[in-house]
Amino acid sequence: MTEGAEQLGRDPGGGRDPLRVSMTASLADRLVTAIAVGAYSPGERLPPERELAASLGVSRVTLREALRQVSEIGLVEARRGRGGGTFVSTVDWEEVAPEVARRTLEVELPRLRELFDFRCLVEGMIARAAAERRTADDVAELHAALAEFDRVEGMIEARALDHRIHGLVTAAARNPHLSLLSARLTAAATLGFGAEPYAPEFLAQARAEHAELVRHVVLGDADSAGRCAQAHFSLTLESMRAGLRKAVARST
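Now predict its structure.
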């Protein structure tokens, strides 16, 4: 592990507000872990600073400091000019910060177990409603999004299309309260970032499960759609567990 990774999340503060130092350290650890589990992929641009700070419930000052800490170990980089922003670098997190991901996931996963269960139940309910209420336009859009998902290879594109498919299913349920609840649970279950973990080893499974879910929704089979969605959303937990296994293997 690099010296920067050892210090990440452990800055004594040097006279600064201890609470803000702690919040910054925790956020830096979560950013590293989000990269480790595949919530953000190499080459991907992070959301704009204002948007990301608001979604995480932190100040822009805290976010900037956390990003600075993560950039010091090489996992993100700032690019200026048109099309600039903060991007995930090609540096391998397993080389520079496995212990950061390990300690974060060892705390977060047990705490999130019941939340993951609740999320699966809610997404099953959404899929049931979608199967009962989908329209011809919903069916056409789902088929188009699924066809695109079947063609992609990159994780950035796969995550975007995953988001689109599930957004279409949620929209087909036609209940804004369910849409809001789904978004809140997604954020809570993904370390606050709202980006689903996506690793190459799970892509084939995701393709098959998306195809099954869309088929049940299109056919109007509410019971099967509900069961399928409930099982499919456990893939997020499996992705995070896989990240923990890698982190443990590299940090011991």
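The chain has two domains: 3-96, 109-251.
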